[in-house]
Amino acid sequence: MPVRIMQTGHLSLTNGLATTSSVTVPRRLGRVWSPLLSYPTHVTGNPSLQCNSDAESFGEHKDDTIDISKLTEVKQKLKLVGINCDDSCIPGRYAHLLCPKCKGGGRSLERSLSVHIIQDGDFAMWRCFRVDCGWAGRAFAGSNKIRKVMSSRQVAEKSLGLEPLGEKLIAYLGERMISEGTLQRNSVMQRLHDQAIAFPYWHNGVLVGCKYRSMERKFRQEKGTEKWLYGLDDINETAEVIIVEGEIDKLSVEEAGFQNCVSVPSGAPPKVSNRELPPREKDTGYQYLWNCKEHLDKVSRIILGTDADTPGHALAEELARRLGKDRCWRVRWPKKDEFSYFKDANEVLKCLGPGALREVIENAELYQLHVSEEALQCTK
User: Fold this and answer.
1) pLDDT interval class at 231 (50, 70, 90)
2) What span, in angstroms and rounded, lies between the C-alpha atoms of 281 and 46?
3) CA distance linking residue 134 with residue 83, whole number of Å
4) Does residue 302 contact residue 243 with C-beta atoms inside 8 Å?
């Protein structure tokens, strides 16, 4: 049965305003969802989740108005680093220009520099997709400091010293119910000198980073690279996305039949911040969301499958604050015994199997309702 709730809109990242709207939603997703939780990409959203809001953030725009002053400032900052925007640089679209660093590959004059200015014109990002270049960065409007650009170096499998997974690590991941087919599809490898598991991060088919995990659960990320969501290329054409807290959890969700899943790159915060959301250029702990903004803007539903512990709950709240609570749903991990719950997707997969994990995801609850019930339980 649908329930009638009052739902508070998410904070705007531009002016800090919040709005309230009334919507009718199903309590859980249920089995009517398709295997990949995907609506056709031409659908702009689920009618049952439509709500009116004056606040703007991920996936929302009040209208198509462009702030000309911000757009002019962003283009000036792009020019300072050598990027000369032509008529193809239209906010909300991708433009392909000559890279000022590699000069378009010399004589080939390849337009390898992808430049994206967001719809309202106050933020731009770019990347050269030539393998021997990889120059990337971001520029922001609204700051007195001109130098608001972050670069990342190009990475390659050879330079990282990666090799195919050996039998030991395949067996280790097999114990976690991750199949060789899933490992191969996600290009999971190992580092040559210490046999740590290597999770390559891809963006549009280009290797943009790598995260390492030892069998002793020690983690390290490749230095000098920007942060992205793990599995980003798997959500190019989906209207629903599942976000989890670790790379192995992403692979676990895939074992349950959902490929439209990504993982955050850097774990969870110890608690929810009591401060207002910072402007995007200062939102350093969640820059991976801004880097992936063009993908997340297309999404109508976001299922949060973070861990069932205090940091996991904090991460879910921080993600929902930024992505919009009106389109977020929360996985409720099943009880392990009378006193505890399964922690994450991989633990459910190992102990209960892919069918149970799939059912848990299909029965995700509207985020606002989930949080309200958690608060009620805490008062009992």
Assistant:
1) very high
2) 31
3) 15
4) yes
